[in-house]
Amino acid sequence: MSGTTPAGTSDERQAAAWVRGMFGRVAPRYDLLNHLLSFNIDRHWRNRTVRAVQSVLRRESATIIDLCCGTGDLTIALQHKTSNRVYGSDFSHPMLQQAHKKSIPRLFEADALNLPLRNKSADLLTVAFGFRNLANYEAGIREMKRVLRPGGMAAILEFSQPPNVVFAAMYSFYSRRVLPKIGALLSGAGDAYTYLPESVRKFPGPDELAAMMRSAGFASVGYQRLTFGIVALHVAIV
Ligand SMILES: C[S@@+](CC[C@H](N)C(=O)[O-])C[C@H]1O[C@@H](n2cnc3c(N)ncnc32)[C@H](O)[C@@H]1O
Question: What pLDDT shows up at residue 175?
């Protein structure tokens, strides 16, 4: 399997079904837990993503799609900085229902591995904290490449392993011991917050992800680590 591997799943279909079910269960509490468990730094990470893609946001008539949009926080942050239409897409209906409550006008339900979009039809694709959950990472990158126009941009914001060993040890304690307990208590879905640090641990490092993007045909692939490398933001051009 070349994507996420939640405990108890043994193929890509099962992994995707588990991820979809899990986000469906945590959807009503997702925003609260997100902001609480990240000490609100998640807002800063999304703002950094918006800043990194601003050249495309300024393009006239650009088609912009926030994949794995969940409850839509990045979709909203992108829309605030452009007069173009921003679309949010996710395969979890309950997550989209939460996004809908925030009055996001353009949402559609779709699997990021099989988007209902024509080849070369988008100028910007973003994914915040969704890519790690895909059942096949290479297929996810290929699908983004297929949908983007020449000159189009992809931005992937995802959790990562902090490179500093001391910070990594502290972060590991927090994410493996503290976060699952608070997450279980507040969401009622303990498995979701045990899955989170496990999925981060198994996720390819930033260099590996950058290499995957290059071999799928992306150019100018670069990344920056944010907040001591807790997250990495990859940006690339087709
Ligand atoms: C951690 S949430 C992130 C939501 C939002 N982007 C944010 O920044 O808060 C991950 C989202 O990815 C979605 N997701 C995971 N795999 C997906 C797939 N194959 N296709 C579409 N959405 C997917 C989940 O349903 C969930 O809403």
Answer: 82
